[in-house]
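Hi U.,

Before I forget, here's the chain from the pilot set. I'm dumping it here mostly so it's searchable later in email.
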Amino acid sequence: MFLFCGSRNDRFKGLLWDGEGFILLYKRFENGHLSWPRHSSEAKELSARQLDWLLKGLNPLPVRRIKAAQPGTLY
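Structure:
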């Protein structure tokens, strides 16, 4: 299955090959949105469990934490 998300993070589409043709899936979340990768370098392979979480509206990927800034340090 291949998953795609456009500019809106509250919906995604999926293409699934069933052996004879593609099935198009469309999922839209009524409340909230996903933290979706924006670049091909950020693309991830999801396990069956993570896909199940995604279809249930849960975030399948670990939340990225922002490191605390240290006084006097630069990038």
